[in-house]
Amino acid sequence: MKHIQTLETRNLCESAKNGGCGECQTSCQSACKTSCGIANQQCENREQAKAE
Amino acid sequence: MIHRYHLDDYYIVLDTCSGSVHVVDEIAYELIGRYEDTDRETLLKEMQERFHEDPAELAECYDQVTALKEQGKLFAPDTFESMAGELKARTSGVVKALCLHVAHTCNLNCAYCFASQGKYHGERAVMSFEVGKQALDFLIAHSGTRRNLEVDFFGGEPLMNFDVVKQLVAYARGREKETGKHFRFTLTTNGMLIDDDVIDFANREMSNVVLSLDGRKEIHDRCRVDYAGNGSWERIVPKFQKLVKARGGKNYYMRGTFTHANPDFLEDIKVMLDLGFNELSMEPVVCAAGDPAALTEEDLPVVLKQYEDLARLMLAREKEGRPFTFYHYMLDLSGGPCIYKRISGCGSGTEYMAVTPWGDLYPCHQFVGEEAFRLGDVWQGVTNPAVQQEFADCNVYAREECRDCWARLYCSGGCAANAWHSTGSVRGVYKYGCELFRKRMECAIMLQAARRLPKAPDAEAQP
Questions:
Q1: Count of A–B CB contacts within 8 Å?
Q2: Span B87-396 CATH architecture
Q3: I want to staple B352 with a disulfide (CB 3.0 to 4.6 A). Which of B1, B95, B347, B437 is the partner?
Q4: Residue A51: its pLDDT value, please?
Q5: Are B156 and B99 in contact (CB under 8 A)?
Q6: Where in chain B is the domain with CATH 3.20.20.70?
Q7: C-beta atoms of B28 and A32 within 8 A
Q8: ipTM for the whole complex
Q9: Which residues does chain B have within 8 Å of residue A10's beta carbon, measured at their own beta carbons?
Q10: What three-state secondary structure class fits B231?
Q11: B157 in the Ramachandran plot: left (φ > 0), alpha (ψ -120 to 50) or beta?
């Protein structure tokens, strides 16, 4: 029996190697204007994100 | 660090530092909870006594956990601290987003307005084209190699200075080719001045529009009134509906504020849905503690329940073929931000600044009017490096309280303005906001699990 199912996620440790291009949207700019959330931002370098 | 929680049918284990999300059964849930402080033999014996499971099954489960740990997907250590600030250092001086306060005036007199009816504790004013143009020139000049530049037309009510908005967009578009830049404009409006001209312009030029509506008519009209005290709901809803219908699928957010008057904000979301809006954002009010609108400790359990029920409503409507989006639940687990983004904070005061009608620069819209935080102006640039450094130093490791928080790589340390309002320091922590944020992340991740795994791991074992 499978006790654990792991969802596909971006490997944050791997993203340390090639991330940091800075092209992504500023966190607060889109909708909220009141609370910082990072995780719902899109990576602009999607090819890189998917490759990790 | 891991975080375990149980929500509806799902037992979920998050591994903070690898970003891994595991959907597990109850046995694995308990086993993972004890894995780090109990040896194999003792733990398997305990699990056997508790679950009466086949020992071979339990051993297999234990070995799965061990394998995940070896793969760096469970109990991954935090190795990122030395990188904190690296992205900011690398992009030091680069500005990529401006919040243009084109109108420090408003045609509504909302009781809870953090901007004091658009005046930001100062004089009423509108931005001239010359000031706005200089702001755009400042942005282009300081954007380094950044191609995508973001400009939000904000207020007060930006449509009270619509002609300048149009001129500034035309100016920016005219400079895109020569500079190799691409502008993404957004507009945040209360809707009062929306007409066909605004709709046509917004749908052509704005990559996103943020429309302020609090939901139920009685809730909306309680705060969002004109200067005669009349509610605005009846006047703006048809305008919003027309704009959204004409938008043809381009992004928008129907953005509400909830206060002490409506901690049961899910009812407001349902009204928004009934009105035909399906890209929604609902935000807790920002105001001083003790303000009648401020959320209280008694409101907290009500608010947390709304977030859970909202996730359930989303799933139910998705099954019915009537999906909607909620800003804070839009997680892209496989294509989300890299670790640099996740540890380097929101960018206020460094890559993001607000510009007043007079051309003054502030770390973000929430600090406008707080003279001590004035950074400089769009002609001289940043002339107060000490304040800028304070914001540059804000990262997820700058706040002691965040070190033990499983959600730190989802929020990056939170909102500097909220921290300052609640603690007097931009490096403080707005604990109430953290409670809400953590619940939102739990719900957002549960939604991802439910979409990808309609049946939780142990659901198939149940009769």
A1: 234
A2: Alpha-Beta Barrel (3.20)
A3: B347
A4: 67
A5: no
A6: 87-396
A7: no
A8: 0.89
A9: 19, 333-336, 338
A10: strand
A11: beta
